[in-house]
Design a protein that fits this description.
The complex is a heterodimer.
Chain A lengths: L11 H9 L7 E4 L3 H4 L10 E4 L3 E7 L17 E9 L2 H9 L5 E4 L3 E3 L4 E2 L16 H7 L3 E4 L11 E2 L14 E3 L3 E6 L2 E7 L5 H6 L5 E9 L3
Parallel strand pairs in A: 1-2, 1-5, 5-8, 6-9, 8-10, 12-13
Antiparallel strand pairs in A: 2-3, 3-4, 6-7, 10-11, 11-12
Helix pairs in contact in A: 3-4
Chain B lengths: L7 H4 L8 E4 L9 H10 L4 E4 L4 H4 L1 H9 L3 E6 L7 H5 L2 H7 L4 E4 L2 H13 L3 E4 L12 E2 L10 E4 L2 E7 L5 E10 L4 E2 L8 H7 L2 E10 L18 E4 L11
Parallel strand pairs in B: 1-2, 1-9, 2-3, 3-4, 9-11, 11-12
Antiparallel strand pairs in B: 4-6, 5-8, 7-8, 9-10
Helix pairs in contact in B: 7-8
């Protein structure tokens, strides 16, 4: 289903900022590739520890120039710096933390999500391959205490990403708690998708027009707050 | 005990056609590039590279060469393709995967870690929660039709788990920051990643080390991989590489 009218939402950096407001001090958080990685720009100075599945706790900000160390990258293969209290470990230890339920929150990008909290992210069929990149995504979904998606509401080609039925291969089933997009903040509830916040200037009807499942409108519906 | 080989070609002399070689590293970090170069020079064919998370994207030049020489039969990985579809279409490895010349078998990263761990610890298979609700609950993911293997599942305490088998490579290629002649190893920062578990999993583990030191120099409390897992150790220079993979 394609939509003819392109709605003007908030930029990717602001989606990341909105997600960062959900993180509590004391949380251990793993951020996926894409918009989720941008969340790290908004939490400097806060008491939040980032886990990188490559084997690092308390991942520091991106490294530039003389600070780049070829033995020190995050799980998106970007050079980073360490912080006081940074810990390194091997991949088994890393996935012991992940699968063992130690992540307070995991934020992932997504290609599609439905109203049951299933999402697809590891393979885009348009690429014409039966294989794809799973990386740590499926393990992170299993262990996350809260699983959030940070994504564009509609795909670049105009196709809807919040759908009734996934047509892309799923990453996980029934695990997504909240969806943060350029247009809205939506909670996955047992009754369906609850629209809680909309981007400035948009109405619930605007968001519904680019969302395939029927949205439940929160009585406290408001503009996205940063 | 002295496990040191001065010549890298001697250390891999018995890596023969058809071998399964575990390649440590996570994208650009902790990849045994010089052992891979030696494997290219040796010309071993029909290889299966058992990876963890995209070490061949990190060692892109070596991968290109292995593909060009038609040395690869199969790659096992969790993240073996470029993220960018545009870049992927220009990549000779992805092309070979599309053409079915090379098999690519894909697992979740943590599942691969457990498959190596099971092999290392003498465990034949493990039940894992990862991937339930996805295609891997039903069968393995591969680009070659007919090669996909059905999965078994079992319910424990009301929750479904997938049976995943141990993966025991013939050889493991490891990259460490420091090692001694008995094979005790220490890694640097995030270059540790898959190195310890692959070192323990393979029948024969060969480690390239940037610094070969006397016994006792690595503090006994700080050894990451005890020498018992290492068969051969080769001193190599620290080479500079581009960290990002696009």
């Amino acid at each position: 289903m394609a939509n003819s009218v392109k709605l003007e939402g908030i930029p990717r950096e602001m989606i990341a900022l909105r997600v960062s407001k959900e993180i509590q001090d004391g949380d251990y958080v793993n951020l996926g590739i894409g918009i989720p990685t941008l969340v790290s720009n908004w939490i400097e100075g806060r008491d939040i520890i980032l886990q990188s599945e490559i084997g690092m706790l308390k991942t520091g900000p991106l490294a530039y120039d003389a600070d780049v160390n070829q033995d020190l990258i995050n799980a998106s293969c970007q050079p980073v710096v360490e912080l006081p209290g940074t810990v390194y470990f091997d991949i088994l230890e890393s996935f012991t933390m992940i699968r063992g339920g130690r992540m307070s929150m995991v934020v992932m990008g997504a290609l599609q999500v439905n109203d049951k909290g299933d999402y697809a992210g590891w393979a885009n069929p348009s690429r014409g391959l039966d294989v794809g990149n799973i990386g740590g995504s499926m393990d992170l979904c299993v262990g996350a205490n809260k699983l959030f998606l940070a994504m564009e509401h509609v795909a670049v080609d105009g196709k809807l990403k919040i759908v009734k039925h996934l047509t892309f291969p799923p990453t996980t089933a029934g695990r997504v708690n909240k969806i943060f997009t350029d247009l809205a903040v939506i909670e996955v509830t047992p009754k369906g998708l609850l629209l809680k916040e909309v981007a400035p200037g948009l109405t619930a009807a605007d968001v519904q027009s680019v969302t395939e499942p029927k949205l439940i409108i929160s009585p406290e519906l408001k503009e996205i707050e940063f | 005990m002295d496990k040191v080989y001065q010549k890298i070609e001697d250390a891999i002399a018995d890596v023969n056609d058809g071998a399964t070689v575990a390649v440590a590293g996570f994208f650009a970090c902790g990849v045994p590039r010089l052992l891979l170069k030696a494997l290219i020079n040796k010309g071993t064919k029909n290889l299966t590279l058992a990876c963890g998370c995209g070490p061949m994207l990190g060692a892109a030049d070596e991968l290109k060469q292995l593909v060009k020489n038609k040395q690869l039969k199969k790659v096992i990985d969790s993240y073996g393709l470029y993220r960018s579809a545009t870049k992927g279409r220009e990549d000779s490895f992805e092309q070979a995967v599309r053409d079915g010349e090379i098999e690519l078998e894909v697992y979740p990263m943590g599942t691969l870690a457990e498959k190596y761990r099971a092999a290392a610890a003498g465990v034949p298979a493990v039940y894992l929660p990862t991937g339930v609700g996805s295609i891997i609950e039903h069968s393995t993911i591969t680009n070659i039709s007919g090669k996909s293997i059905p999965k078994e599942t079992r319910v424990f305490n009301g929750r479904t788990y997938i049976l995943e088998y141990a993966l025991k490579p013939d050889f493991a290629f490891i990259h460490a920051h420091t090692g001694d002649r008995e094979g005790n190893l220490k890694y640097s920062k995030t270059a540790r990643n898959f190195n310890p578990v692959m070192a323990a999993a393979a029948k024969v583990t060969i480690a390239e080390v940037e610094n070969l030191v006397e016994l006792g120099i690595i503090d006994s409390d700080s050894v990451h991989t005890p020498g018992i897992y290492i068969k051969r150790i080769v001193p190599v220079p620290r080479i500079d590489f581009r960290v990002s993979i696009d």
